[in-house]
Amino acid sequence: MPAPMIQVLATDLDGTLFYPKRQIKLVNRKNRALLRDFIGQGGKVVLVSSRSESFLRKTRDKLGLPVDFIGADGTVIDVAGEGVLDKVFDPDKIKALLSEIRAEVDPGLILLTSREYPIIMTRTKVNKVINFSYFLYEAVQGAYREPWIRSDHKFYSELSKGTVRKLMVLIGLSKARQAAAEDLTKEWAARYPEFEFTWLNQFIEITPKGCSKASGIAFYLDYLGISYDNVLVVGDSGNDVPMFEAFHQNSYCMAHAKPSVQQKAANVIHRVSDLRSVLCPSVGSTQSEKEG
Fold it and tell me: Residue 144: its pLDDT value, please?
């Protein structure tokens, strides 16, 4: 039986399409050329990220290509410039969960993404080490930085208004704490089935029930009437595992990903541009990359 034709490329951003980083253009020349050539032959590209809606719009503008996006881990979806999905937490349920999480792990940092704000950091229990580390991390992000604010008032106001799409809970900065985050993600998923949990290095990401990168891609394909066999997914992090599992036949993981993430995908690549032989076998790379 011949392999299915790939109609959709669903790609993660950080560590994937953004690898290696390019501070001005965001996406390197070879990756950008691949997207342009794939779209030129009739394919569709959807950016699938934990990043906020505003950052994904910025990325689309920078690319200058007609790409769609699935943001905040499947809670917001934009097709051809039109919002087609927007999911948020139930205020009472997420506040109750947050209270239990605080009592259990006393996290050094909690972030949220809402409809209005890309990132809000709560000040509560942020010690000097965590505070300095986060400021240092943000300082070196350059073009990849998202606007953020520190405010208990806005943090809890957004929770109460029911506008929050995603929470990120910092478990710790050490390698041991990063490993603990992966294990704790599984524990919380079993304990709190009314939410979705994935891990991203030292963070645990929480989204409303039924919202993940995998569910976002499924909604996107259904919306466009495209078979699940005709999508190729690529990523590098723990929050990409759901899409590796859901679309395993055409799943690709970056070679620099953690072994526990790589083993969930069917294939491993070093750069997104390595997908040219799969997505655009009839388009020569040399001239395309020069033009890119």
Answer: 87
